[in-house]
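Regression test attached.
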Amino acid sequence: DTGVSQDPRHKITKRGQNVTFRCDPISEHNRLYWYRQTLGQGPEFLTYFQNEAQLEKSRLLSDRFSAERPKGSFSTLEIQRTEQGDSAMYLCASSPWTGAGENEQYFGPGTRLTVT
Amino acid sequence: DAKTTQPPSMDCAEGRAANLPCNHSTISGNEYVYWYRQIHSQGPQYIIHGLKNNETNEMASLIITEDRKSSTLILPHATLRDTAVYYCIVTNFGNEKLTFGTGTRLTIIP
């Protein structure tokens, strides 16, 4: 399967702990995105990278959140000092952005985080 | 980005065409219409997008009105596996984030 993969698929953690999620995009895609989805809502944008450069961050991405894409391939999303409000599905997507104005994104299966 | 309006839910009989409407009356000239769907407990799946002309691919057809203020996604022969939440999103070049609303929950009935 050559789609977007995410690891782990499920994570249960206690409030105050740190967690890290990994996303492996489709290999030839240069853009990578993180979204968060809570129950009953559509996904909300968090941040995106072009290669290794982080180009935009949402206001939703508080100081406790950090994302990296060190070599322009896989990406990690870390949440420090987790809170119950962080419980959500964290989705990763990638796209083969060419600058032509069209930007279909391909999503992974998500990591479901539960903070107890 | 232009705001979109979709019905919260729709039913369609298996084997029939499912027609999902989307209103985007404030769309501007350089904004594309994208459709994604999300099957329960999975990540969203890209379906199709268009700017002005009607588009068709192996999954669906997208019909955009001449004034571009609304569009319809057509699944020509709906199957039970098409049961999902369908999102209509309008976005323009240079705006990389997708802004999802609450979409239309489509239920295919056997």
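Expected vs. actual: identical. Residues 11 and 107 of chain B are 5 Å apart (CA to CA).
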